Amino acid sequence: MSLVRSAVVDTPLSLLQRFGRRAALLMPRGLYARSLLIVIAPMVILQCVLSYVFMERHWQLVTTRLSTALTQDIAALIDLHKASPGGTADAELARIAQDRLRMDIEFLPKGPLPPALPKPFFEIVDIALSNEIRRQIGRPFWLDTVGRSNFIEIRIALDDSVLRIVAFRNAAYASNSHIFLLWMVGTSLVLILLAIAFLRNQISPILSLAHAAEAFGKGREPEFRPQGAREVRQAGYAFIEMRRRIERAVETRTAMLNGVSHDLRTILTRFKLSLALMPDSDESRDLEKDVEEMQRMLEAYLAFARGDAGECASQIDIRDFLDELRLDAERHGARVDVQFSGDDSSVSVRADAFKRCLANLVTNARLHAEKIRIEATRDPRFLTIHVDDNGPGIPHAAREDVFRPFFRLDESRNQDQGGTGLGLAIARDVARSQGGDITLSDSPLGGLRATVRIPT
């Protein structure tokens, strides 16, 4: 049964899909690198094809023809030697070969040929010349195309002697192939450099758009001007229009909330004034508590709805920022330890909103724990802050639910006792509006760890 399953799974299609997934993991992630690959890969393939055609076809054809001509000259010398044997005739043949054919010949005493040499790595000329000697001369021979780089040595066994020929190497193969290779490599480098310069110019506007969108998400005012190709400029103009619509929506919401806040605060002020004029009694004191609770709830609702609208990011010193947070918590009777690690303590955040975020986390810990520890770490990319306590913690199943507005725990721990259930929701909203997030986990102190992580 397992063999059948294996045969079904390992089909050619599944193997191809598996290969495609593995190849996708090796592909570069950036658009610039992928664009370069799209440009360079066809160029390299084309050059390889041209090299194959030249080396295996054109060069082999030229080498074969040159080897044929060289072998014909050697065969003619052998025929002349057979027609006029003798020392004087051999000397005249050596002179003619050197003056007319640019080769040195020598008639050695008859004897065995040297042992065969190993085949060279680049054996086109060796194969072509050997084939021509077998075809035209048909006698035992010995060939050395490696020993001396500029020469070829050939020995052919004759009836009465051994003919030794030393010829120039370029007489048997096309010696100008390196010019083609250099030209091919040179043109490839020029094309690659042009592709790199062109793609860098095309990718730069996309990176500018990405940086502008990231800065806008962090609450900063990016200086962005659409540029580049038509499609990239269209995306840039769409981003600018989207930013304007978001800003108008935020301004409208802020104006509406300010109006609502003013009207409701006016009514609460009237309630307080009426209660102040009433005689002191248990009922009036209960009404005062209700009015105060209503005012706290109103402030929480407005803070959640308003978020950090209208506030711009600014540079703050996180050390001083955390010290102020510690002093505020200690004024409410909490014991807080603060630690910071990092070379640079300067970060760009919406200061008021970020303080509200951390204050909500510290308040949540203060209401349920005796000991609180704040650890901050600043690296080149992120600011990470851990708020640990030794309280009862929050069950794992409810650690995402507590970030929902108006959600309140019934057991173990209530993140906003006597409040509205908006503390953690406001904190996460602030963190996400600055490009970060908040997560909950187990604390080394035994309680809850709230981790704020925002880009710097």
Give a description of the structure.
It is a single chain. The chain is α+β, with helices and mostly antiparallel strands and 456 residues long. The protein has a domain at 311-455: Histidine kinase-like ATPase, C-terminal domain (Heat Shock Protein 90, 2-Layer Sandwich), CATH 3.30.565.10. Helix content is 57%, strand content 16%. The protein has eleven helices and eleven strands. The chain has helices spanning 2-9, 12-26, 31-83, 87-100, 124-136, 177-217, 230-277, 282-306, 318-331, 351-366, 423-433, and strands at residues 103-109, 141-144, 151-157, 161-168, 314-317, 335-341, 346-349, 371-378, 382-389, 437-442, 448-455. A five-stranded mixed beta sheet has the order 6-8-9-11-10, covered by helices on one side. It has a four-stranded antiparallel beta sheet with strand order 1-4-3-2, with helices on one face. Strands 5-7 form a two-stranded antiparallel sheet.
Pick out its properties:
4-stranded antiparallel beta sheet; alpha+beta; 11 strands; 57% helix; Heat Shock Protein 90; 456 residues; 5-stranded mixed beta sheet
Q: What is the structural class?
A: alpha+beta
Shape: rod-shaped
> Distance N terminus to C terminus?
57 Å
How much strand? Answer: 15-25%
Radius of gyration: 44 Å
Helix count, DSSP H or I runs of 4 or more residues: 11
Report the CATH superfamily of the domain at 311-455.
Answer: Histidine kinase-like ATPase, C-terminal domain
List the secondary-structure elements in sequence, H or E.
HHHHEHEEEHHHEHEEHEEHEE
**Known CATH architecture of the domain at 311-455:** 2-Layer Sandwich
CATH topology of the domain at 311-455: Heat Shock Protein 90
What can be said about the biggest beta sheet?
A: 5 strands, mixed
